[in-house]
Specification:
alpha/beta, 3-stranded parallel β-sheet, homodimer, 20 helices
Chain lengths: 625, 625
């Protein structure tokens, strides 16, 4: 079954106009060739997204914190099952609309180089190896291992893309060759080498003067040349027009389209490739080049089994969507994504002593912080409040206490005083604060004043700080739960709270997962996939893409919590007996999952490998890399 | 214990500036007289509002649909218990801030004369008697029957106020004397006669040229004169400044303040009464008048027991807030607020036949439509989806299907196709559509294009109509659940759906209550408190305040569902044996609550009285009015 041969045969029957039409993401039908309309754009960053109900797993940054590649592959397999189940129904309509096809523009494997970047929570953090391994597991789970490809995974955004959001259509990221290969391209290469992703998405920005979607250096020389990539490249949405309108590299869309196509960007999200007709007529692009593009695209469609009736995924039933098995898997991933940052012994909570819990804060009962961005719709979900209500037999008092931002809502009062009353009545306070996806996100989706989706600093908002100080002043045992997709400067929390938990955006089961941790049903095992700095003042300028003084590898300061940090409820010791062998021992506390991280330290700290194990109290396990 | 005598004594110690200061809603402390700062503004339209967690009962319009005055009084008693419980804690801070006092600016007893009015859902509907009786029950529950007054209830907005929202600061409602007394003032008089409300709030608009908050006719002549009102009057927020800035009746705020005070508006929400100092110095108002105002206000504060330590409500504990008893009461009110508009026999659903239910629509899982406006925060809530999930053992498939408006959200896809897939897999479809509180509400709170919080017409939105038509075309048994605070033209639903239910904004227990009705645990007993017209074209112009051709009393057309309409699951017959006696018989079906409505028909239909009974199958009950 030679998919390319079949593609070539089919494409050979198309006119030049028909071929050009197929290079748009919203490819029209060609009835005379029995080709249905097909929309290439779909999303599944942490669950099938934007097409209704789906199991909504923790946001990517949270899944990265699990440091658990095999679990990640299971999650991605659940996602691809749901995706196929939906496709099997959608295709009965005779075409696929937006977000209904099999070609998914996930995962986002950009490096989260600066905590201010609004889209950082879509990534697997700041380390290229963690990103490469998590991306690889995710791609494998999406693409499957069958006769046909289960889904097409698309690694994005190639390359370097990491803010500022509000300048992305015109920004030129200037990077050294060392940073480019060592940091920005490393995970792309890793995924291509290890997981054979079907596609790559070009970024909006320029890199060293070349627009990513039309870059000879990035596409022709590195991606297809050095990395030996065999798949197809899709532009980010509107990125081709940006080449002339934003980057001013070309004079018009026809030139932009030609530049992109000639350098190997076969598919266009946007409508700039409508101008390929002009470009062809002006001899900016040859029919042969166009033919090769369309052949690649149809190879992919054939490989997905779209034109066959013996595809092994055609019988995945609709009721796998949000099935109990996936919900349980989701809860497991949500548990493993939780990072315990401080614990003076208050956790797990002692149900014999704790009779009343006050759950306080603007992120405690907000569905939005569960689903983050690029998300599906959970038909059931567990907020922090609901998880604690469901997981605790005692009394739970809730007070939102404040709006997360001054600007949210005018008349719906959440008085700080109610929170103080609640705290005073409780044995333990769970303070749930942080950010939400409208405060860190994509240009257009999010709004943070003049920095669009990016963050200005690493602070909590003013109303939260005010509420926090009032509650802390009461001197009650306090567990601080930070819900955010990026690093927050939790210095005061580290000092004054009894425990600090990083929840990230935890998906539909976040509350249940947190309750599992709070009440000792699960020993936390997540580790930070990013450095938690003490202040925005410790960082280089946001627009500076040099890696100097960034991430755990190069940061010269003293971080609050380093990359890889994360506590368990067990007393674990590691004894490295050789470069690749370590004895891990659980000296007490409780049974726990545990990620062993292997670093080198010269010329700077660098993650070389990691493995996650389960270790019982008193157990000793030898881990070999 | 003469509250007025104590007030007079205290006020006699104040300087003129101190007195004027106490006429602001945010009255400052007078430490030398041991008077703490007090904020008069509080809200409890359908539960303690805007001060954190509270039992959130159905929106006012829904409670009116219960036609159950004794239940209404129980609800208001629960509200006043929660209000006192909160106050008992808030006062420990040494002052009360916004939304923390005992003086509540509820209920809204304006007449819902036109379904386009955005704030109509805050009212008890279009009938003055129903409004008067519901208002009376509500006020009694709030104010209690003790040595001290439990809370101050404030009837608003005096008078005539009912849109347009976007013109309210300058609008002159022109009304005939007949309409004024018979329609617009009737419920105010009824409540004053029967429930002795502590306060009246003046409206923004003018009536026949006079600004309500400074109207000699409305305040001095009618309210204090004819109606014998003994309480105090508070301006709506900013309404005093409107007298000069919006209505152009006076030259400046000092004149506006003097006009209002001289006509009997003692308390100012806003800051216009700061100008009373000028007005006093310019001899526009006398110290005697000011003194009388402040005495009235302090009479109210003494009557609430604020300055005593033997108040019978001081020991209501905080944990009455959202206690189980109130939650159960809430579910009962939510059940009774549901109006069954059509049933071809599909309801109650037969659990032996119905194994899979598809819950479809943008209002199925939206917390916002539960709480409506002027609301507290439920710490637990049951959406339509959740209620069905919790109340049904079979399979529930959810699909939002569309955004409620085109403008809501850009990238979060809710494909119609998913809804079609869900419907096809189901035995029964529950379609949950309507409006939400951002589409009908107050000026400023809500946005409906150029009509602010008002509605342009009685239609569902375009995306909902599209979704509706796609689902209905499938021919599946369909229950249409309309969630709105006002009449929607459900003509097509009445024709093509198997059942039609009006849910209103049902409070925190709405989903459980609906499930009780769907699955036959409760026979619906609500009746429409407003006429459901067939089209906006059947209505007089919105700005025309004449009652001609409005409401069931005067409408000359053929409504879709008349005022008072509502089905049960029983076969009920009524036999009137005299003007004031009726034999009600339950001929079969199931035991049910039932409201008996007594109308006269000449010179037009008019509700004279109503009583709600419980009647078992086969039972015969004689109801006497």
């Amino acid at each position: 079954m030679d998919f390319m041969a079949r593609a070539k045969e089919l494409v050979s029957k198309m006119t030049i106009e028909e071929k050009i039409g197929q290079m748009r993401y919203d490819a029209p039908a060609i009835p005379r060739l029995n080709i249905p309309a097909y929309n290439w754009w779909n999303e599944c960053l942490h669950g099938v997204a934007r097409q209704g109900c789906a199991t909504v797993f923790p946001q990517a940054i949270g899944m990265a914190a699990s440091f658990n590649c095999s679990l990640m592959e299971k999650v991605a397999t659940a996602i691809s099952d749901e995706a196929r189940a939906k496709y099997n129904e959608f295709k009965k309509f005779g075409s696929t609309e937006l977000y209904q096809g099999l070609t998914y523009w996930s995962p986002n494997i950009n490096i989260f180089r600066d905590p201010r970047w609004g889209r950082g929570h879509e990534t697997y953090g700041e380390d290229p190896l963690l990103t490469g391994k998590m991306g690889t597991a995710f791609i494998k789970g999406l693409q499957g291992n069958g006769k046909y490809r289960k889904l097409d995974a698309t690694i994005k955004h190639y390359a370097v893309h990491s803010g500022p959001e509000y300048e992305r259509h015109s920004f030129d990221a200037v990077v050294s060759k060392k940073d480019l290969y060592e940091t920005y391209l490393s995970a792309f290469k890793y995924c291509i080498d290890n997981a054979d992703p079907s596609a790559v998405m070009g970024a909006y920005n320029r890199v060293n003067g070349e627009a990513c979607c039309g870059s000879k250096t990035l596409l022709k020389d590195i991606l297809y040349g050095e990395f030996g990539f065999k798949g197809y490249v899709v532009s980010d949405c509107g990125a081709i027009r940006d080449i002339n309108a934003g980057h001013k590299i070309t004079q018009n869309e026809a030139e932009s389209a030609a530049l992109a196509v000639n350098n190997g960007c076969q598919l266009n999200c946007g409508d700039a490739y409508l101008s390929l007709v002009d470009a062809y007529e002006e001899d900016l692009v040859t029919e042969e080049t166009i033919t090769e593009c369309v052949e690649k695209l149809f190879e992919a469609r054939f490989r997905l089994g779209m034109f066959d009736d013996d595809c092994e995924y055609d019988n995945i039933p609709f009721d796998v969507v949000e099935c109990d098995k996936h919900t349980e898997l989701n809860r497991q991933m949500a548990r493993e994504s939780i990072v315990l940052l401080k614990n003076n012994g208050i956790l797990p909570l002692d149900k014999n002593k704790v009779k009343t819990i006050a759950v306080i804060g603007p992120n405690a009962d907000d569905k939005g912080v569960l689903v983050a961005n690029y998300h599906g719709t959970p038909s059931k979900y567990s907020t922090v409040l609901k998880g604690i209500q469901d997981g605790f037999d005692g009394k739970v008092i809730f007070s939102q206490g404040c709006h997360i931002r001054h600007t949210d809502g005018n008349w719906t009062g959440y008085p700080v005083r109610e929170a103080i009353i609640a705290a005073k009545m409780a044995d333990v306070v769970v303070l749930c604060m942080g950010l939400n996806p409208s405060m860190e996100g994509e240009e257009g989706d999010s709004y943070n004043g003049d920095v669009a989706g990016d963050k200005k600093d690493l602070s909590l908002t003013e109303p939260q700080i005010k509420l926090y100080n009032e509650i802390i002043a009461l001197g009650k045992p306090t567990v601080f739960v930070n819900v955010s997709g990026s690093a927050i400067a939790l210095c005061d929390q580290d000092e004054r709270c009894d425990a600090v938990i990083q929840l990230f955006y935890g998906g539909a089961q976040a509350g249940n997962a947190l309750a599992d941790v709070l009440f000792g049903k699960y020993s936390p095992s997540g580790r930070l996939p990013v450095t938690f700095y003490r202040s925005v003042d410790d960082l280089p300028p946001f627009r500076d893409y040099s890696m100097e003084n960034r991430t755990y590898k190069f940061f010269k300061g003293n971080p609050l919590y380093p990359f890889g940090y994360g506590l368990t409820y067990a007393d674990i010791s590691e004894s490295w007996i050789s470069e690749n062998e370590v004895i891990v021992k659980n000296n007490g506390g409780m049974d726990t999952d545990y990620s062993v991280l292997k670093f080198k330290t010269e010329p700077h700290k660098e993650l070389l490998d990691f493995k996650k194990i389960h270790i019982k109290v008193g157990e000793k396990i030898k881990v070999t890399f």
